[in-house]
Design brief:
With 180 residues, the protein is mainly α. The chain is built from nine helices and no strands.
């Protein structure tokens, strides 16, 4: 389940970012700054080839971009999303818990930001809980199942057009059906 999810999610993330932009970008305000942020993020994400090294390098680059633009939710969103992609791809890697903690921190920062799209925040929260389940289904499945579902439902209630929330929710449901 995790390998198929992670490959699919990375391609979704790149497609959504490059072709439509995530909704947090619309709230950034300053068009020049947003264009600069998008260019830097796009350059970083274009190097990802689903290897642990390329994903970790991308996460590090996205965190540097986030530090350069602390008032923008877009780099936080992308860094958290790529971190969660890494975690779902390599759930038992030595550094996955640290990567997950970093993603959780970024999601928390986004929650408090005035310009953050709450649909995107809830999408990331749902993905975070989903990765916890992937990491340890026996211990976390029942514990976080409702959190995953309610996060995606909140995201879609705020923005019914949130494609990532729709796709993650569908992948989660497929994964749950397959695990029975």
């Amino acid at each position: 389940m995790m390998s198929l999810i992670s490959k699919h999610l990375i391609s979704i993330a790149v497609s959504l970012f490059i072709f439509t932009g995530v909704s947090v970008a619309r709230n950034a305000g300053d068009d020049d700054k947003t264009a600069q942020i998008q260019a830097l993020i796009g350059e970083s994400m274009s190097k990802v080839d689903n290897t642990p090294e390329s994903m970790l390098n991308c996460i590090a680059e996205l965190k540097r971009i986030e530090a350069m633009f602390p008032d923008s939710p877009l780099p936080k969103y992308q860094a958290a999303f790529m971190s969660l992609n890494y975690a779902v791809s390599f759930p038992h890697a030595e550094n996955t818990a640290t990567i997950m903690a970093g993603a959780d921190e970024l999601i928390g920062k986004m929650e408090k930001m005035k310009g953050a799209d709450m649909s995107d925040v809830h999408t990331l929260k749902g993905f975070y809980y989903m990765v916890l389940i992937v990491r340890d289904p026996a211990a976390n499945g029942q514990k976080y199942y409702l959190d995953v579902m309610s996060s995606y439902e909140k995201a879609l209630k705020i923005n019914p057009g949130n494609e990532l929330a729709k796709q993650l929710q569908a992948k989660f449901m497929d994964g749950m059906r397959q695990s029975r």
